[in-house]
ABC transporter ATP-binding protein
Amino acid sequence: MNLLEVNHVYKTYDHGTAVLQDVNFTMEKKQCLGLVGESGCGKSTLARCLLNMEPIDKGSILFEGTPLHNKNERSLRPYRKNIQAVLQNPSAALNPKLKIIDSLMDPYLQFGDQAKMKHFHYTNKNDFAAQLLEAVELPASLANRYPHELSGGQKQRATIARAISIEPAIIILDEPTSSLDVLSQAAVLRLLDGLREQLGTSYLFISHDLSAVYAMSQKIMVMKGGIIVDRFEKEDLFAAERHPYTQELISMFE
């Protein structure tokens, strides 16, 4: 059984713009599936639909065979622990009024199930936060700081720590490095790749940057105008049969 299955998903906004058109794909366990395309092509809308932050118009989204699309929050609650997200802007993702330790604890307090967790063990709040920060290569002392006291790279690592805190099956990474400088980008990508191996989590890695997607992913999808126009194994990126838009992205990549 596939971990995630997306079938014939359509999404149109109220003003009539078709954002997603017949989107189909599956995700496997412990896989990084990349999604690349220019800004405005529908990548982030797809992420919000997968997180049930926006309803889809047509189609289905299944987690291990269970439909998730268009459910109410109460019905979704048992599945929230399985799909977490790391988004583009860590400053917006972290509550400026909360210390980092409280932001880290939030998913665990809502959805955590210690009996099913294999890598992080809750004994007390401070120890749990220290484990999470160590996993993302941050000192435990940052737990008692506020977001404005951290650098951009540190804040994004803190949001990653929060996402892994309940050991989800899937993490949706929507442009997770686009707000960072080049050195921080490389470090965060290395960290994410190591965490996937360590925790066995699957990623949907969304980016406009083909080089980042190529570095992270085993399989790659290319989106243009809300349509997945190409999909292939990583090693087939430079094959002659690639879609013209993929070839256009490759020309910028090279």
Summary: The chain has two domains: 1-82+168-254, 95-167. The CA atoms of residues 44 and 110 lie 25 Å apart. The beta strands are 4-12, 18-27, 32-36, 58-63, 66-67, 83-86, 170-174, 202-207, 219-224, 227-233.
